[in-house]
Glyoxylate reductase
Amino acid sequence: MAKSKILICRDIGEQAMALLRAQPDWELVVWPQDSPADAQWVLDNAPGSVGMVVTLGEKISEKVIDAAAVAGPELKVISTMSVGVDHVDLSAAAKRHIRIGYTPEVLTDAVADCSIMLALMASRCVTASQAMLRAGKWGSLGWGPYLFCGPQIGSGPTKKQSTVGFLGFGRISQATLVRMAAFGVTRCVYYNSGRVDRTAEDRALAAKLGLESVGRVELDELARSSDVLFTLVPGGKDTFHIVDEAFLRKMKKTAVLVNPGRGPIVDTDALVKALKEGWIWAAGLDVIEGEPNIPADHPLLHEPRCSIIPHIGSATIETRETMALLCAENLIGGLKEGKIGVEYTL
Ligand code: DGY
């Protein structure tokens, strides 16, 4: 019997690959380099594949999904090693009854940790202080009473009121809130598309974390009242540029914006202006519009109050290995048992 063709757009590591290779009736076609698979290679190899393993680096467009249907058996499962699914054309997949496996939850702690790191890096002027240090200028500047000072995250010595805001209030936001509570934030506001009434859960969460309140607000209020704001909504057209010039102009001058979500949530040009003109204090970004093709002269790379890291929120060894295994298991479950362990549904 002919083996089923499985397209592996990226080698996802020893353990997960061993699991995939152990399927006797599968023939794995693996992108041979340690880089995102070339778009033409994906397109050329899609026909006849019944399953695909993908990462954020590959764009699984309608063209790829259509190409998969051109010859041989139908594509049944796309398994992505990510919680985000904005790199897959979900409606094209749904039209062809292709199911999607993904890897939420296992990366929640790593991304929440990284979100806190970015808030601290941005508020405590890490970019500017590192630049000074690496330029060999510490000796001439010495220690200054207000050198590289930034706003306190949380209540601090003055016991100030401090509000943490979340755009989106899913798992990662809530894990980040738990961490922020330890910094002495007093209040949490969030915005989500808000179809479910969370009043009772929010009260219980506030009591559990020792906060005055946790509650949903409209976008205007989120912008106006957040001292630190985390943007943790999924990518895609519904969230494109939610944080735009109008939003940024409403924020506090001392506010810190942290984007661990998806680059296009924040309008880059508006953010550059906001930082240059001091509408907000600083920004910490794990993601940025246009990534990964960010040229060395990108304006945000030259903003002293902007800390940028290259989409490494989930990059702990344990997290990535767990994501890879889950990704492999989702594909195996979907194709062998008709049941994807963790399935993304529209
Ligand atoms: C994801 O999985 O979508 C994160 O952005 C990267 O781990």
Remarks:
- The domain at 4-106+318-344 is CATH 3.40.50.720 (Rossmann fold).
- The chain has a mean pLDDT of 97.
